[in-house]
Write a structure and sequence with these properties.
Length: 546
């Protein structure tokens, strides 16, 4: 039975303590003047595997820390339901992701500006990337030092990763020592969001140092159930903790930072969304907004599995002796397999002949399994991943009931366009060529999946349809823009609604060309500045309807 609890009042309520939400909690409380409530549906981040880099593999299928969503049947993927994981813990997906630090290409953000979003060109957002960074390489025109987010070089090399880079160079791709430098194209090692062998999630980098601020209240295991309105002004949040229903009032603004699935879900549950959908569940319509939950854009990837003749993580976890040895090495030196993120090295390349900049991200992981999050193979294995960087395919997120605890319907519409299919096929062919080039080829004993008999473009495409999956970068469901279906304006204010902003990956007009955690943190930094600036100038009112 639900028990109502007396309302508390804050200046700002942040819903979601993920990559952007933790940034907001830190920055909005810096002055000491604002009272901020930070709500997180998941638990605190005390579990040790949340802090050991390889620990994401141990928690990947744990519903306590992962929403464990899956998509609706995907028409162009043989009707499969594709996994759609999202972090459900302080730090959000930054606490369970593969730790890779990639911003995307400058052209990605310049395109956002070309769509009419003033203030979102690469030159506009670069200061916020730099502000966030504490880069091991130091500060320069493109990088920052001293920020809350640790960005580090790989603490370990691996023969396969070394050979991958050299094979990519031998195959004709340039060497690249910094994917966030002047150009993204080429092969090299990834930097990761780690410090001294420990994961640096936003819960660690941004939230932990400020948890004791008197003007910040953090409530975990708190499921937001609806936004509270007075007319067309957001005035607070209703949420549940255990069996209690609580309400909190925001004197200034409610800031949604629940991500590309949960931010539109909460808006729809609260009466903001396609009117016909909301009415079908008996939800009173505050504003008919067809764009809420629309335009879902996500990275899709094809993967190849190979058997190799050198030890990999598969061997380290196969026996108790291997596990103990890896644990001891990590405990004594913060090195070894436990410091490895999802993948170690990669190559950004142009696969489609019409592409002017890299359109796929080809990477190598020093382990292999039949499925993502599954048990590692009982032999030395590695995985090659080819990610489609700029998918044209668009889908949607929609509630399936009026129950806030029920997962939404997620439909990314993967591989819906010919350009997406052509690019990924060519990209997977390029990835295979790297694996077939020395010095990497001398380590590869056999391609396990799809295998040497899969050769034609049609066969490769069918393999991608059968075995391909997300790389966990959903965006655009509360899209920023100037057109009729845009959900937020360039100040991230929800159009036609006062006192409400969305500040997370869902506002991205298009997915950046790379892993999205860095860009989500940048959005948190820039969003916090906008909130504070608009509070000073009185511009935090109603954004005009598109």
């Amino acid at each position: 039975m639900s028990v109502a609890v007396d309302q508390q009042t804050f200046d700002y309520i942040v819903v979601g303590a993920g990559s952007a939400g933790c940034v907001l909690a830190n920055r909005l409380t810096e002055s000491g003047r604002n009272r901020v409530l930070l709500l997180e549906a998941g638990p605190n981040n005390r579990h040790p595997w949340l802090h050991i880099p390889i620990g994401y593999g141990r928690l990947f299928t744990n519903p306590r820390y992962n929403w464990c969503y899956e998509t609706e049947p995907q028409e162009h993927c043989h009707g499969r339901n594709v996994i759609a994981p999202r972090g459900k813990v302080l730090g959000g997906s930054s606490s369970i992701n593969g730790l890779i630090y990639i911003r995307g290409q400058p052209e990605d953000f310049d395109h956002w500006r070309q769509l009419g979003n003033v203030g979102w060109s690469f030159d506009d957002v670069l200061p916020y990337f730099r502000k966030a960074e504490d880069n091991e390489r130091g500060a320069d025109a493109l990088h920052g030092k001293g920020g809350p987010l640790a960005v580090s070089n790989a603490r370990n090399s691996h023969p396969l990763a070394d050979a991958y880079v050299e094979a990519a160079v031998a195959a004709g791709y340039p060497r690249n020592g910094d994917f966030n430098g002047p150009t993204q194209e080429g092969a090299g090692y990834y930097q990761t969001t780690t410090r001294g062998g420990w994961r640096c999630s936003t819960a660690v980098g941004y939230l932990k140092p400020v948890r004791n601020r008197a003007n910040l209240q953090v409530v975990s295991e708190a499921l937001a159930t609806r936004i509270l309105f007075e007319g067309r002004r957001a005035v607070g949040i209703e949420y549940k903790v255990g069996g209690e229903t609580r309400t909190a009032r925001a004197n200034a603004e409610v800031l949604l930072s629940s991500g590309a699935f949960n931010s539109p879900q909460l808006m729809q549950l609260s009466g903001l969304g396609p009117a016909e959908l909301l009415q079908s569940f008996g939800i009173p319509v505050v504003a008919d907004m067809p764009g809420v939950g629309d335009a879902l854009n996500d990275h899709f990837a094809g993967r190849i599995l190979v058997r190799v003749n050198t030890p990999t993580l598969n061997d380290a976890v196969r026996t108790w002796g291997g596990k103990i040895a890896a644990g001891l090495r990590y405990g004594l030196s913060r090195r070894g397999y436990l410091t490895v993120g999802a993948i170690m090295a990669g190559c950004f390349l142009r696969a489609h002949p019409a592409s002017a900049t890299p359109d796929v991200q080809c990477s190598i992981a020093p382990y292999s399994a039949d499925k993502i999050g599954g048990d590692l193979h009982p032999f030395s294995g590695a995985t090659g991943i080819c990610t489609l960087l700029r998918p044209e395919s668009r889908g949607w997120v929609r509630i399936k009931s009026a129950d806030p605890a029920a997962p939404p319907a997620i439909h990314p519409n993967y591989l819906a366009t010919a350009r997406d299919r052509e690019t990924l096929v060519e990209g997977l062919k390029a990835l295979r060529r790297i694996f077939q080039t020395d010095p990497l080829a001398r380590y590869v004993e056999a391609e396990i999946d799809p295998g040497k008999d899969c050769t034609s473009d049609d066969e490769i495409l069918d393999f991608i349809r059968r075995r391909g999956s997300t790389t966990y970068h959903p965006v655009s469901t509360c899209r920023m823009g100037q057109d009729a279906t845009a959900v937020v304006d360039e100040r991230l204010r929800v159009r036609g609604i006062a006192g409400l902003r969305v500040i997370d990956a869902s506002i991205m007009p298009t997915v950046p060309s790379g892993n999205t955690n860095a860009a989500s943190i940048m959005i948190g930094e820039k969003g916090a500045d906008m909130v504070m600036e608009d509070a000073r100038t009185g511009a935090a009112g109603v954004a005009r309807a598109a």
